[in-house]
Amino acid sequence: MTEHADPLAPLRQQIDELDSQLVELLVKRLAITRQVGEIKSQVGLPIYVPSREAELLAKRRAEAEALGLSPALVEDLLRRIMRESYQTQHQRYRCCNPELGKVVVIGGKGALGSVFVDMFQLSGYEVAILEQDDWQNADAIFNGAGLVLVSVPMKLTEEVISKLSGLPEHCLLADITSTKSGPLHAMLDVHTGPVLGLHPMFGPDVPSLVKQVIVVCHGRYAERYEWLLEQMRSWGAILNESTAGEHDDAMAFIQVMRHFCTYVYGSHLAGENPDLEKLIQFSSPIYRLELAMVGRLFAQSPNLYADIIFSNKQSLPLLKRFRDHLDQALKMLETGDKAAFIKDFFHIGQWFGDFAKKSLVESKKLLLKADDDRS
């Protein structure tokens, strides 16, 4: 069939023209959001304002419904566009404490440390970095510091903190380690000034801090580091407060258990040695996402995950209890006790409650995205 004989050709041409117009509109919209970002940084507004985002989505959904267009489609498009918009505003931020002095990031050349170096620099702070070979010049580097942020491997954190006894009393001492009890107590012991424990719940590959969670564990003199909390909010971060003990207990489930189970699953796959390409080809979207999360783990540093798993005091007893549950489940399978499995399944579903239904809805969105990306 020649091009001129193709009955779809005129319609496809119209679609191409409309798509080009969409691209041009997106360029114009992003240009405006850059200006919005500039004004926000000048007047001290945060990048991410949840109420504004919710209002915008509600209005556009209503408009779509009135025109017979899927509100879900419009919301999906807008959320993706807004994510890009936040990125265009990731150029400069207001400085919440211009009188602070120097920010010193110990380990600032590391993956996560460099993220915070960039954020402080984009906010107009003077930033200095102290690495392993710089300790002979530490006094000069710390001179004039208003914040010292510890961002080193977990196993070195408390050792590094022990070297910080000479900081000025007014200086804020904070860390961004995955465990909080040990580092927080170490900072309180070594420093008489304000102390704050932080745990960024994201990796170094995030495009910005908009909607990223940072756990806040208060240490000492909270009124003297409120500026830093406000600074992180201006970056778009979501702050969740916790005690160090509550944080570490939660991380045993959120990080240790999940990472360890993923490690074991990956180890089992490698030992069984199935055809990985076949597994990927035969997987439905949900299983491809699960397999992708396993593969993602093994594309990263084994030292990081070893530190997370081996450093948490809750790891061993928690994982042993998990093994007991696995043994119980295997016993049901061995004895063919379907009734016990179904009864237990319902019991677990009741424990999850409404979260199970919400997860079903949210996961459908992820699966649609996975379908879109499949070539």
UniProtKB/TrEMBL annotation:
A Pfam family this chain is assigned to: PDH_N
MF terms in GO: chorismate mutase activity; prephenate dehydrogenase (NAD+) activity
Keywords per UniProt: Amino-acid biosynthesis, Aromatic amino acid biosynthesis, Cytoplasm, Isomerase, NAD, Oxidoreductase, Tyrosine biosynthesis
Pathway note: Metabolic intermediate biosynthesis; prephenate biosynthesis; prephenate from chorismate: step 1/1; Amino-acid biosynthesis; L-tyrosine biosynthesis; (4-hydroxyphenyl)pyruvate from prephenate (NAD(+) route): step 1/1
SMART domains, A to Z: CM_2
Ranges of residues in domain Chorismate mutase: 2-93
Residues in Prephenate/arogenate dehydrogenase domain copies: 101-363
Compartmental location: Cytoplasm
Name of the molecule in the record: T-protein
The organism's taxonomic lineage, starting at the top: Bacteria, Pseudomonadati, Pseudomonadota, Gammaproteobacteria, Alteromonadales
